[in-house]
Structures are given as C-alpha cells and as structure tokens.
C-alpha cells in the first residue's frame, strides 16, 4: 500500500509527493492533522490500491479518531466493500499492529536517514520535498513482512488469540508510579487535630454568616424590584380622570 501524506499547507499540490514511493498521494491541512475530508480522500486511495469491492471485501482496522468515523467515510466504506473495525480508546499500544511492530522501527530508521542527509548537506534545511526520499529508502525495511506479521500476532488479531491479555491488562491505570508501600507517614497529633477542628468550625461559621448576608441582600433586592415593577405597572395602566 503506497503511503498517504498529510502536509501542513493550505492547499495540496501533487508535486509534494514527487520522489516518494510509487503510487504515493496526499492532502493538506493547515496544522498537518488528519481531518474527515482528508480521510475520505485516503479512503479513495485505500480502495484504489486494495482493490476493495463488494465482491472483494476488505477489513480496515483503525483507531477511534473522530476523522475516521464521519458519515461520509462510513457511507463510502459500505458502498465499496470496506469493513471498518474501530479500536477502543487508549488501546493502540496493545491492539494496533502499527504501534506494536512498525512505528518504532520506522521512526528509528527515519531519524537515521535524516541525520545522514544533514551531515551530507551542511547548512541546508530539510523541507517537505526531502521527506519522501527518506521514506522511499526506509519503507521496505520498516514495513517488512516480518514486522507486519509480528504486529498482527502480538495484537492477537492474526492468528486470532482471545487469551493473549491477562486480567491485569484490563485493570484501571494507576494514578501514580510512585512506590508508597514503604513510605513513612506521621499521623497528626491530638493537638493538631484539635487545631484543625477549631479552624474547620470557624470556617463553617464564616460561610454561614456569608450565606445569611447574601440571603438578606437578595431578599431586599427582590422586594425593591417588585415595588418598582408594581409602580411601573400602575403608571402604565392608570386611567386618566
């Protein structure tokens, strides 16, 4: 599958992917993030190269980013034999083959290619027009058959393995990684407890007084408002003699 790029540009131009892997395509958005519009264009790219159809259905596994589940994308997928399987939130590191077996190798090789280019081109700045050359060089290595198969196996997708994860994998995340089992804590003394209780009592008394003040003030305001309203109505509907 040729790559599909998202460029941080206002308008996309086909020459952005010149020099990249054959069949590369892309789109642009000012921030470089995926949008529903760009993802729909990717779906067309995916259909073209996967040869998906109702007679040749294809499964596409995705994370749950909002751009992946727009009405237009879902309708396009249904019309073209593409089944969308959306992973649960925050599970990509366990269930997404790309996260498990591809991204780490890809990023490492990309950084190496980038460093080599900068050493060979001192004083020059890397632009979007160099990126495709790096990716073309490293893609066959990072996206090797062994890495792809490993990603699907370790995620339990293929071969299917519903016993891959233990009960601990489904437990709630810890709020801290700090070891508190051996830490010593001093319990408050009786004098400090009395002091705290006294402060708490004073705080409640202060809050009670503030509440009473606001209540009296609001009652006064409401009474004055009603009086003003009554006077206004009387003036408006008074019948002249």
UniProtKB/TrEMBL annotation:
Pfam families referenced in this protein's UniProt entry, alphabetically: DDE_1
InterPro entries found in the cross-reference section: CenT-Element_Derived, DDE_SF_endonuclease_dom
Transmembrane parts of this sequence: none
A Gene Ontology molecular function term of the record: DNA binding
Coiled-coil segments on the chain, per record: none
GO cellular component term, pick one: nucleus
Domain DDE-1: 31-148
Descriptive protein name: (apollo) hypothetical protein
Species the sequence originates in: Parnassius apollo
Origin organism lineage: Eukaryota, Metazoa, Ecdysozoa, Arthropoda, Hexapoda
């Amino acid at each position: 599958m040729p790559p599909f790029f998202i460029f941080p540009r206002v308008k996309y131009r086909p020459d952005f992917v010149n020099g990249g892997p054959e069949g590369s395509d892309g789109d642009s958005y000012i921030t470089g993030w995926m949008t529903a519009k760009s993802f729909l264009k990717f779906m067309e790219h995916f259909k073209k190269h996967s040869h998906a159809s109702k007679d040749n259905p294809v499964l596409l596994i995705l994370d749950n980013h909002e751009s992946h589940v727009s009405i237009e994308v879902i309708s396009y997928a249904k019309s073209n034999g593409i089944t969308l399987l959306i992973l649960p939130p925050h599970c990509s590191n366990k269930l997404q083959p790309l996260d498990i077996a591809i991204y780490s190798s890809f990023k490492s090789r990309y950084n190496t290619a980038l460093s080599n280019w900068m050493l060979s081109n001192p004083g020059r700045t890397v632009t979007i027009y160099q990126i495709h050359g790096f990716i073309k060089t490293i893609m066959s290595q990072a996206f090797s058959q062994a890495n792809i198969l490993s990603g699907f196996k370790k995620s339990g997708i293929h071969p299917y393995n519903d016993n891959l994860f233990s009960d601990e994998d489904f437990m709630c995340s810890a709020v801290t990684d700090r070891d508190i089992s051996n830490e010593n804590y001093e319990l408050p003394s009786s004098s400090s407890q009395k002091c705290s209780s006294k402060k708490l009592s004073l705080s409640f008394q202060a809050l009670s007084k503030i509440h009473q003040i606001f209540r009296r003030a609001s009652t006064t305001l409401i009474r004055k408002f009603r009086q003003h309203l009554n006077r206004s109505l009387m003036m408006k509907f008074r019948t002249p003699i």
